[in-house]
Design a protein that fits this description.
Length: about 150
C-alpha cells in the first residue's frame, strides 16, 4: 500500500512528536492530519518551518509537562463521591463510566476529557476504587473514587 511522507507540526498521540517525519496512509493524511493542521507534506519549505519552530516547540513541551505534573499532584489529593442506585447486595444498576468521573471533576472545576480516564476493571459495585488519568505522555495520575448508594 502507498504511504505519504509528512512532517508533524504538532504532537500526535501514537504517531510522533512535532518535527518528526512520518509515513502514513494517504487517507489518514488527507482526512485527519492535514485538515487539522497537525502535519504538512514533507517539502524543503516545511522542513525549514519546523526547524525555525524547534525552540518554541521544546518550550511548549516543557510547559505542558510542568502543567501535567501540577495537575497530577492536585488530582492525587481529590476523592470523588459518585452516588449510584444499587441492589441490596451492593451490585450497581449499570456501572461507573469515565464520563461520570469527568463530570464529577468538572463540578470541581477540573476539566479533563473522559477519553483520558481509564477505569479498569469496570466499577460495578459499591465501594472504593481508583481510576487512572493520562494527563501527558509521561504523566499519569490516580483518582480515588467512592461509589455510594444513591
Amino acid at each position: 500500500m502507498a504511504q505519504v511522507s509528512l512532517i508533524l507540526l504538532d504532537d500526535v498521540e501514537n504517531l510522533g512528536l512535532a518535527g518528526d517525519e512520518v509515513h502514513v496512509a494517504p487517507g489518514y493524511a488527507r482526512n485527519f492530519l492535514l485538515p487539522r493542521k497537525l502535519a504538512a507534506k514533507a517539502t524543503p519549505g516545511a522542513l525549514r518551518l519546523v526547524e525555525s519552530r524547534k525552540a518554541a516547540i521544546a518550550a511548549r513541551r516543557a510547559q505542558e509537562l510542568e502543567n501535567a505534573k501540577a495537575l497530577a499532584a492536585k488530582l492525587g489529593e481529590i476523592e470523588l463521591s459518585i452516588a449510584m442506585q444499587a441492589t441490596e447486595d451492593d451490585q450497581l444498576f449499570g456501572s461507573v463510566t469515565s464520563r461520570m468521573v469527568a463530570d464529577e471533576l468538572a463540578a470541581k472545576e477540573i476539566k479533563i476529557e473522559h477519553s483520558r480516564i481509564t477505569i479498569d476493571p469496570p466499577i460495578k459495585t459499591i465501594g472504593s476504587f481508583e481510576a487512572d488519568v493520562k494527563l501527558h505522555a509521561e504523566v499519569t495520575a490516580k483518582i480515588k473514587i467512592w461509589v455510594v448508594r444513591g
